[in-house]
Amino acid sequence: MTDLHLIHEDAHLLVFDKPAGLLCVPGRGEDKQDCLSARAQQRWPDALVVHRLDMSTSGLVVMARGIDMQRALGDAFARREVHKRYEAIVDGVLPISAEWATIDAPLMADWPRRPSQKIDAAGKPSVTRWRALGPMTLQRAQERMATHVLLEPLTGRTHQLRVHLASVGHAIIGDALYASEAVRQLGTRLMLHSTVLALVHPVTRQTIRFESVAPFDARTGSGRTP
Questions:
Q1: Distance separating alpha carbons of residues 223 and 213, to the nearest angstrom
Q2: Which label site among 32, 39, 74, 107 has the fewest CB atoms less than 10 Å from its CB?
């Protein structure tokens, strides 16, 4: 397959809206070679990976065109100069507030359960801001309440949003790694989407901002193609 949802193209970078279920880079095995980077390179041979989304997470991904731009964008991510926002549907009810709350919990690989991550004092600093938009009753389980939340990772650790939310008792619906079986089955997919990506263009020095609507139905727990 070579389908791509292109959001932005210029001589220096590309922005895509990645669907859930598609890897950002090739995995191990012949069945894991189809990915966002491989599809992009068929049309833009100079396209290079800068950051990644989990296979089960959908949303905005930027790719560099050429090694110099890859280095410049990579440095911007490392300096936390790229603004990222996600939307998720999580299990349970979180308090609605105009203020952002913070989860500050270091993460490290859970080696016996790879690719899972875990909270550990010896892990790397990991910080997530969150704000609840409102509670809802899921149509797939009328007795189960959920909350629509905004998320802003201030660091970029593997599975950070998923682990942090599970750690406070509000796992993301549809999460096959960190949610209970009951919560996983509430959704047909992981209910997590990268909705906003903003950064200073390394060449033009203008601030560029991209947005994507979450491609899932919050109340039914079902996904749709973006």
A1: 12
A2: 32
| Beta pairing, strands 101-104 & 127-138 | antiparallel
Residue 54 appears among annotated catalytic residues: yes
Domains annotated for the chain, with CATH where assigned, are 6-215 (3.30.2350.10)
Answer whether 180's CB lies under 8 Å from 172's CB: no
Confidence check: pLDDT of 223 > 80: no
Q: Residue 13: which of 195, 202, 198, 196 has the closest Cα? A: 202
Q: 217 is written with which tokens?
A: 């139905």
CB 50 within 8 A of CB 40: no
Which residue is associated with the tokens 């041979």? Answer: 45
CA distance 131 to 96: 7
Q: How far apart are CA 112 and CA 109, in angstroms?
A: 9
Cα gap 150→130, rounded to integer Å = 6
Q: 222 vs 42, which has greater pLDDT?
A: 42
- In the set 10, 17, 46, 54, the catalytic residue is 54
Q: How far is it, in rounded angstroms, from Cα 6 to Cα 43?
A: 11
Q: Which of 166, 169, 160, 81 shows the shortest CA–CA distance to 124?
A: 160
* pTM of the predicted model over 0.70: yes
CA 216 from centroid of its chain's CA atoms: 14
